[in-house]
Structure formats: structure tokens, C-alpha cells
Design a protein that fits this description.
Blueprint (H helix, E strand, L loop, with lengths): L2 H46 L13 E7 L4 E7 L3 H4 L3 E3 L10 E6 L17 E6 L2 E14 L12 E9 L9 E13 L14
Parallel strand pairs: 2-3, 4-7
Antiparallel strand pairs: 1-2, 1-5, 3-4, 5-6, 6-8, 7-8
Length: 204
């Protein structure tokens, strides 16, 4: 099925949802459809490393995937951390290191949706980030509550670092000046295409 036809079919499904389930059903179906299209675009990115927009008018595209094995969590990483990107997932902050490259890769997400699980992440947890180039393992080094104005959170590093950021406290609905920051340092990587938990090689 070609992409225009697929999008037309999706639009029809959305129209049917409005009639059958009302606004709540429409929003739920829209979110599921977005997740499906983003996952499809990520698989295309893994194949060729290109920037594949999940739909023609999207202003973002998948660049990686975050996995937290202990919690059974997977989140696709989107380019940019604009409001549009964060509405559909977790976003990579422009100006910080790209996923799995040397430097501090900063990722942001909403506390009431995609990054709510950060409250359950522990020091010592293993995280994995997958990109077109392969997988890299990170070990959680610390959890901190910092001011939203604290620029040290985004500070560049020489080593591979993953910094996950969401609003704090997690059970508050109003915007606030504090952020929960989870910092993980790169530990090991697998060769491209190996399953998680497979053979690894050290790089430091």
C-alpha cells in the first residue's frame, strides 16, 4: 500500500472514530495512529539512517530508541524538543550531542505521559539507546532535582552521556520551576543488529 493511500485510510478511520466514540475516542485513536506511524518511520531510519517523517506534514522524525529493560519501557526518540515533538514522544534537545555519540545527549519528555516512568528509574539501572549505527548501553549514575534554569544540566562532556529531563514533581499538573534529571553514563555497546543482552564489547 502506498503512503498517500495509507494516510487516506487512516483519515477515514479517524472520521469513523469521531462518530462512534466521540472526542475521547478520537483522541485515543489519533494517539495510537501517531505511535504506529512513528514506529514505522523509525524502522525506516534503522534501515538507511535517513530522516523519515512519520507523516508528510510532521516537523520531526525518529532518530533513536530508548529502552529500560527492568521496567519494560521503550520510547522512540524524536528530533527536536519543540511542543510539537513532545506532543508525540520524547525529544532530543537541539545543540546537545546526538544519541550514542561522544558528548551529553539530552532528552526531554512530559512527566504525565512518556517520561512518567522516570520516577521508577533507580541508580544502577541499565538503559539502552538504539540508532542506525547500533546500540549503546548506559548505566544510571544519579537522579537529581534541578532548577529549570540550571544550564549545567546541558553541559557538554567528552564521554558519552545520556541526560533525561522531565518536570518535577511528577504528580503535579501545574508548570513549575524544577526538573527531575536522570544522568546515565555509557558503559558498553553491541554490534549493530544484535539483540539486547547479546555479546558486547567495551569501548572505555
Amino acid at each position: 500500500m502506498n503512503r498517500p493511500l495509507a494516510l487516506a485510510g487512516c483519515s477515514l478511520c479517524l472520521a469513523i472514530a469521531v462518530g462512534l466514540f466521540g472526542e475521547q475516542g478520537y483522541l485515543s485513536l489519533k494517539a495510537r495512529l501517531a505511535d504506529h506511524l512513528i514506529a514505522h518511520a523509525f524502522q525506516a531510519h534503522l534501515r538507511d539512517g535517513g530522516a523519515h517523517r512519520p507523516w508528510s506534514w510532521a516537523d520531526t522524525h525518529p532518530i533513536g530508541k530508548l529502552e529500560v529493560p527492568r521496567l519494560g519501557v521503550e520510547r522512540i526518540l524524536l528530533a527536536g524538543a519543540s511542543g510539537a515533538s513532545l506532543a508525540f514522544g520524547v525529544g532530543h534537545l537541539d545543540g546537545t550531542a546526538a544519541p550514542n555519540t561522544a558528548g551529553n545527549c539530552c532528552i526531554a519528555g512530559h512527566r504525565d505521559t512518556v517520561f512518567g516512568f522516570l520516577g521508577e528509574v533507580r541508580v544502577g539501572d541499565l538503559l539502552w539507546v538504539e540508532t542506525h549505527e547500533g546500540r549503546v548501553a548506559y548505566r544510571v549514575a544519579r537522579r537529581e532535582v534541578r532548577s529549570m534554569w540550571d544550564a549545567n544540566v546541558l553541559r557538554a562532556t567528552e564521554q558519552r552521556r545520556l541526560t533525561l529531563i522531565t518536570c518535577w514533581p511528577l504528580d503535579e499538573w501545574r508548570p513549575g520551576p524544577e526538573r527531575l534529571v536522570v544522568v546515565a553514563e555509557a558503559e558498553e555497546e553491541t554490534t549493530e543488529g544484535e539483540p539486547l543482552g547479546g555479546p558486547t564489547r567495551r569501548f572505555r
